[in-house]
Amino acid sequence: MNSRADEIRKRIARRKKEKDRVTKKVDSNILWTEDEERYGFNKLPSYDSKVGEGDHPLFRKELFLFKLLASACLFLLAAILFKNEAVTLAPARDFVKASMEKDFQFAAVSGWYEEQFGKPLALLPFSDGKQETQSPSKNSDYALPASAKILEDFNDNGQRITIETGKEASVEAMSEGLVRFAGKKDGFGNTVIIQHGDKSESWYGNLADINVNLYQYIEKGTGLGTAGDTDDGEKGSFYFAIKKGDDFIDPIQVIPFE
Fold first, then answer.
1. Which residues form the signal peptide (predicted)?
2. Is 46 a domain residue?
3. What is the pLDDT of residue 153?
4. How many CB atoms lie within 10 A of CB 251?
């Protein structure tokens, strides 16, 4: 009788252990609801990565490898294009050279965008001053200082004219635009080059100093620098040139002189 009771107790103990084991296993596999799901929202994705995984959610390895391969192919094609001196490839070489050497028309793009959408591109520099609406023709007009006097005309050198001013007078921009160059130029000395909305450029040379910065957008009448001294030192003078495309044009054709 005792052995029968002991066997029953052992069976009960085994069943209890089995039940506890199964319960623990089920509890470990339960997916508890997050706070978002509890209130009716979808569960937010987690970007936490385990140590050693090395994959970033914003980094797509396939796209990166494609860009790398495309860049290598373009470089290889350019190398073959310039190493191969075949006549049939000459137009392609000329096109690549012209594209790489030609300056980007910041002022023209800014003017077009402002005309189409009413506001310059945020990535292009523009004046923070008054936002008055003016006609394109008025913006592109050049204005010569009233006291200016021509010392050397365009026919003397085929590039520029020389304008006489007062000693240490401020040289002002004759039209608004973007400063494309500010530094020394051969034959011009200290020079400021302004790119305008119609893709033309105005050059101001022989400056004693420069008061503007590269890629600065300036209004008409902004001081660019100080005129250099004349040969006798009694007055000031500066060079002025207008360039359209690859050619200099006579400023007298653009600016009215009395």
1. none
2. no
3. 85
4. 22
Q: Are 242 and 204 in contact (CB under 8 A)?
A: no
For residue 120, being part of any structural domain is answered with: no
- Phi first, then psi, for residue 248 (nearest 5°) are -85, 145
Between CA 22 and CA 17 the distance in angstroms is 9
Please tell me the total count of domains within the chain: 1
Place of tokens 């937010």: 44
The number of beta carbons lying within 10 Å of the beta carbon of residue 42 is 8
Lowest average pLDDT, out of 26-30, 59-63, 229-233, 250-254, goes to: 26-30
| Alpha carbons 76 and 98: distance in angstroms, whole number | 19
Predicted confidence at residue 51, as pLDDT, reads 45
Domain that holds residue 166: 138-253
Cα 62 to Cα 12, 55, 145, distances in angstroms: 60, 12, 61
Residue 169 in domain = yes
Q: What tens digit of pLDDT does each residue of 114-165 get?
A: 666 665 544 444 444 444 433 333 334 565 665 668 888 888 888 899 988 8
Could you report how far apart the first and last alpha carbons of the chain are, in Å?
A: 137
Indicate if the alpha-carbon torsion angle 136, 107, 103, 67 is positive or negative. negative
